[in-house]
Amino acid sequence: MDSPLLGPNHHVSFNKFNRKFFLCFLLLFVAVTTIVGLGVRGNISFWILKGTERYNEGKTANQGHVIESELGVVAADDARCSAVGVSMLRLGGHAVDAAVAAALCAGVVFQASSGIGGGSFMVVKSSSSSKAQAFDMRETAPLAASQNMYQTDPEAKFLGALSVGVPGELAGLHAAWLKHGRLPWKTLFQPAIGLAKNGFTVSPTLEEYLANDENKIMSDPGLRNIYAPNGTLLKGGEVCSNVELGKSLEILAEEGPQAFYNGTIGEKLVKDVTEVGGILTVEDLRNYKVEITDAMTVNVMGYTIHGMPPPSSGTLALSLVLNILDSYESPDSVKGNLGIHRLIEALKHTFAIRMNLGDPDFENISGTSSEMLSRSFAQTIQRQILDNTTFPPEYYMDRWSQLRDHGTSHLCVVDADRNAVSLTTSVNWHFGAGIRSTSTGIVVNNEMDDFSTPTDISPDKLPPAPTNFIEPNKRPLSSMTPIIITKVLLAACLLRIWHFRGDFQI
Ligand SMILES: *[C@@H]1O[C@H](CO)[C@@H](O)[C@H](O)[C@H]1NC(C)=O
Ligand SMILES: *[C@@H]1O[C@H](CO)[C@@H](O)[C@H](O)[C@H]1NC(C)=O
Ligand SMILES: *[C@@H]1O[C@H](CO)[C@@H](O)[C@H](O)[C@H]1NC(C)=O
Ligand SMILES: *[C@@H]1O[C@H](CO)[C@@H](O)[C@H](O)[C@H]1NC(C)=O
């Protein structure tokens, strides 16, 4: 990309993207979509933000790939949350202010996939620095968790109170705001509080998710109360309110995250989770630490990708896949059906290798990390990919059984100063553990399911991955891949694919 995406004198049209960039775009599209196991379905549409005009002009993808603005761009799964982010930029907010407000909004209107009962990865690129920062606010295993805790009841790993990891979302959003925010903390909460207390219209996607998870909703009083208030599931277009969540957000807006991590909201949440059999404690919340590091930076295909270090496998996997494909002589060699074949084969190898990763605070994964970043390793794999055939699973050197993780929400922000944020937030499966705390209105995650367990063995499966076994305070391996791509200094392209049906927003 020769010129930045933003700025009055730098109109970037699709035709000016050079072919390599477009190739990279396509590959990332496929790679990221596949890695998180999500699909973009329905009508693909772009939302265009231009100066002080409306944030949503509803342009469709084939009408243009241009996002241009002097104010900034916010893209969330739900257009209402993009608008919330934009409102923060209009108040003079930093990209991080917009991201926090939009994430809080998503945690209300799209509680199926995100919220303060979950966790996130956030990459922040300041325009003044060539480096990006990574905020790891992923859930951790509670202190009372242990490797074999699901031995007698494997379902408890993904459904119910034992599947709950210590939520990190709010602590992480606050940490990012402390470093970069310009607006008052409580300003960021006002739109989300309004939506939760006054009610919001159920989107077609939420309607679909509710219907898919009817049993989960109906068997939990907290979820049932708000999503089936009259005994039947809400439909798209009907209004849903989450008054308890609104009240919790009001307190957190006033008192800050300590009300959650060392105060009344946390105590109430722990009580609700304990009552249905959980092991989460107030001490777990007090112990929670956001990890702030330099983003992992990799240079591939002439671009710089700033992403999350482990326990996210995302940046490493993306780098390996792109380096494998870049090992072919020309960009044309990854085009068409043959290109798709090569991509799929590259992904199979990458998925096999990524299961050797885990939380670097607990496991020595430096060998695997450097392999996944190495160009010569990528070339070795590329030579193992044949154009005329595919192979039985053993060929891809799978040692450990795969995790099948899914279910996230994503948002990107670039502000007028070209500060950029890429944030992927999750409660893991839709509606997380299937528990909405009745006193706080918070849906809790089932992120413990992203760990591997030694007892999860069967004759038709590979053994579970030891680097991803449960330990108190450990974070489970993740495939979430928030990234910021830069070419020239100050040019930022944010890219991530997500799954709000019918809306693909950049
Ligand atoms: C539920 O019932 C209440 C009171 O009977 C009514 O006001 C409301 O419109 C109903 N909501 C839905 C979604 O049917
Ligand atoms: C928790 O709050 C108490 C006061 O209620 C305070 O003394 C203590 O330092 C706090 N702990 C942490 C970890 O913030
Ligand atoms: C971690 O593993 C690498 C090889 O994979 C080894 O060279 C290194 O010494 C190990 N580090 C520690 C702290 O054990
Ligand atoms: C596939 O291609 C390889 C060389 O690239 C060749 O050795 C092999 O015979 C081919 N296999 C088939 C089934 O055509």
TrEMBL record:
The gene is 11442456. It comes from the Eukaryota. Keywords: Membrane, Transmembrane, Transmembrane helix. This is Gamma-glutamyltranspeptidase. The active site is at T408 (nucleophile). The chain crosses the membrane at residues 21-40. It comes from Medicago truncatula (Barrel medic). The keyword Transmembrane helix applies. GO terms for molecular function: glutathione hydrolase activity.
